[in-house]
Amino acid sequence: MSEKKMAIIATKGTLDWAYPPFILASTAAALGFEVQIFFTFYGLQLLRKNLNLKVSPLGNPGMPMPMAMDKWFPVLGTAIPGMESIMTMMMKQKMKSKGIATVEELRTLSMEAGVVMIGCQMTVDLFDFNPNDLIDGIEFAGASAFLSFAGDSDITLYI
Amino acid sequence: MSADQELDARGLNCPLPILRAKKTLNDMSGGQVLSIIATDPGSVKDFEAFAKQTGNELMESREEGGEFHFLIKKRA
Lengths: 159, 76
Prior knowledge:
Distance between the termini of chain B: 19 Å
CATH architecture of chain B: 2-Layer Sandwich
Helix content of chain B: 25-40%
Distance between the termini of chain A: 29 Å
CATH topology of the domain at 5-57 and 103-158 in chain A: Hypothetical Protein Ychn, Chain: A
Largest sheet of chain A: 5 strands, parallel
Oligomer: heterodimer
CATH superfamily of the domain at 5-57 and 103-158 in chain A: DsrEFH-like
CATH topology of chain B: Translation Initiation Factor IF3
Number of helices of chain B: 2
Number of domains of chain B: 1
Strand content of chain B: 25-35%
Number of strands of chain A: 5
Order of helices and strands of chain A: EHEHHHEHEHE
Radius of gyration of chain A: 17 Å
């Protein structure tokens, strides 16, 4: 039985968008897939040792808010300083109460299951990332390396 | 029938029940049976797909009092 392959590009660095790549990668690995995730631009934030991911209600009309605030709270109000932190805290509490894994947990499970994580070298240079701030066990490469794996993959996703 | 291993995945949400099941199966021998209890309604379809994809046999899948019970036999 030849192994299936999945290639993911993770481009977003917010709490909500951290979930799809890690959920799919960890699950695919459990299903026996060979998986690589290529983290580029804001997606590189997902590889930090100390994750400080936020979710923002600003410019996000689809985000349900406590007390149905998304229905009556003025849009500009979501730009008030501190809103992002409050919403992030509430989102994390909600996730915990619903038995949803943390991003750190899913990332570790993915790593343990053999998911290969690749940081975009260009992004490291562009945003002056210190590789020591990123988790151990990752690789650094560019578009060509991703395409070489993606070209042989059964599933390729841009997230 | 009695299972060789049991996994309590109650209260866990997607994809944790599948990940925990996979981890538990890794430490079991071929032909052994894993019994799983979950509360995530999505796990019904997920365990069907998991079994199909991995070749482990889903021997039983039933709901009882809002909980979902699965029996998976590890591929030999």
